[in-house]
Amino acid sequence: MGFVTDEKIALLGAIQSLFEGSMYTFVFLWTPALSPNDEDIPHGFIFATFMLASMLGSSFAARLMAKNSPKVESYMQIVFVVSSASLMLPILTTFLVPPSNVKGGGISFAGSIQLLGFCTFESCVGIFWPSIMKMRSQYIPEEARSTIMNFFRIPLNLFVCIVLYNVNAFPITVMFGMCSIFLFVASILQRRLAAIADKPKAEDWTAMKERDTEADPLNAP
């Protein structure tokens, strides 16, 4: 049982690091992604839209967690896949939408599509925070929770610093692709976490069934 618990903590820490690393990288990428040709975009309005999307995501997560089904370990798999797909849009629009070479002006058609994907990602961020907090409360002891999660933030902070230092060394599509891959890996780890989260219950049910079987001869007339 100790190994299972340790694996849950390791998976949870890796999931949080992958998601937060992608999220913090996204913070520095969305502006150049929406204005590659120095378009005049409404930064304040877009940021407010992101915050609204995040708030709606948190509200939706609260409704999900108020129910017994689906479990947080289950629906977070979908959240990570959706967030991964949403950050793939800048790459897809690069290949599918003809680029605009006009300097200035308003947001382009490709930028509008990306903005929709970014709002979707922010909704996933809103779902992520209350959900990850619930999983942390389930799998990590309260007295060691902050220490353990801070330990996992060490590689996260190193990763973000490296990305920011080399942000101009790679095309923006490469950066978004990297974030998308990280989020997809997080969905795989979340699937593993959901699998081992149900394992103890299955073992308890099997043990209970065996005890009932052993008790039947004693209760026989």
TrEMBL record:
Per UniProt, the keywords (alphabetical) are: Cell membrane, Ion transport, Membrane, Transmembrane, Transmembrane helix, Transport
Tell me one GO biological process term.
Answer: monoatomic ion transport
Alphabetically, the GO molecular function entries are: molybdate ion transmembrane transporter activity
Q: Which GO terms describe its cellular component?
A: plasma membrane
Q: Where in the cell is it found?
A: Cell membrane
Coarsely, its chief localization is membrane
Give the membrane topology: Multi-pass membrane protein
Q: Where are the transmembrane segments?
A: 9-33, 45-66, 78-97, 109-129, 150-166, 172-189
Question: Known InterPro entries for this protein?
Answer: MFS_trans_sf (IPR036259), MOT2/MFSD5 (IPR008509)
Report the function annotation for this chain.
Answer: Mediates high-affinity intracellular uptake of the rare oligo-element molybdenum.
Identify its protein family.
Belongs to the major facilitator superfamily. Phosphate:H(+) symporter (TC 2.A.1.9) family.
This one is known as Molybdate-anion transporter
Q: Which organism is it from?
A: Solanum commersonii (Commerson's wild potato)
**Which taxonomic lineage is given here?**
Eukaryota, Viridiplantae, Streptophyta, Embryophyta, Tracheophyta
